[in-house]
Amino acid sequence: MYVEQLLPAEPDDARPIVLVHGGGGQGTDWLAGADGRPGWAELIVATGRSVHVVDRPGFGRSPGRLPAQGVVPMTARLFAAGDQDGHTQWPGPGGPDDPLVRALAAAASGLAADLAAAQETEFRLMTGVLERIGPAVLITHSLGACAGWLVAWRRPDLVAAVVALEPPPPFLIVPGTPLDLAHGLTATPLGERVPAQIPIAVVEAEASAMAAGCRAVSAALSEAGLPAEHIRLADHGVHGNGHGLMLERNHDAVLDVVLNWLFAASNRTETGERR
Predict the structure, then answer these.
(1) Domain 2-274 class in CATH
(2) pLDDT tens by residue, the chain, 275 residues
(3) HEC secondary structure over the chain
(4) Domain ranges of the chain
């Protein structure tokens, strides 16, 4: 698994952040917006935190990349449907002819045929990263949430917090593809329940085709005894985002919501520990 480390010139004492890309994406999704402006990785490093950007096995700069089929129309549908249904933050015109859509699609990879086995590999390698850098905050996007849930459930000692951006809904199945979350939040069994003291947030964009799943994920976590905070960006005055919220025009405003939540969650955890 390829891991890129970015270190601040003046580090603070906050936990490192690990950025985990979604579906057919790759780590570079965090390095720049779709229109080339500085991405989340650089913006987070500027706050004094160290950042580790992973390319999940078989994606991006990691070995074993698989071709993705029908990726341009799928990317357009999921990330850049155009200025409809309130989706105003994609920086291009949207649709399959949008050059920004085509650039994003060109970097996409297909899913492994055995998704459960692939997620076990992700868990093993993600655990190895966290054992080297110490407990960290996991910020995941879309299908990358599965790796975050597995590590949090099985190795909660390595996880300071989890922020899941637009995770897939529980038991999601897409016929004709390997995508089958047979165990609810993941394709492989989660294992024992994660201790409830790990702060978890599920972030929902206002105009995303995946938005409805965020409430279902939050409910599933609560049913498992893990109360997660369901953050609706619109409630924080951040409007018009689609599924690729870290790639869009106002991605810095989205990041501000996430970092403010992390700061508050960290303060609550430290206060609880002192008590």
Answers:
(1) alpha beta
(2) 999 999 999 888 889 999 999 999 999 999 999 999 999 999 999 999 999 999 999 999 998 888 788 899 999 999 998 776 799 999 999 999 999 999 999 989 999 999 999 999 999 999 999 999 999 999 999 999 999 999 999 999 999 999 999 999 999 999 989 999 999 999 999 987 777 789 999 999 999 989 999 999 999 998 888 889 999 999 999 999 999 999 999 999 999 999 999 999 988 766 554 32
(3) CEEEEECCCCCCCCCCEEEECCCCCCHHHHCECCCCCECHHHHHHCCCCCEEEEECCCCCCCCCCCCCCCHHHHHHHHHCCCCCCCCCCCCCCCCCCCHHHHHHHHCCCCCCCCHHHHHHHHHHHHHHHHHHHCCEEEEEEHHHHHHHHHHHHHCHHHEEEEEEECCCCCCCECCCCCCECCCCCCCCCCCCCCCCCCCEEEEECCCCCCHHHHHHHHHHHHHCCCCCEEEEHHHHCCCCCCCCHHHCCCHHHHHHHHHHHHHHHHHHHHHHHHC
(4) 2-274
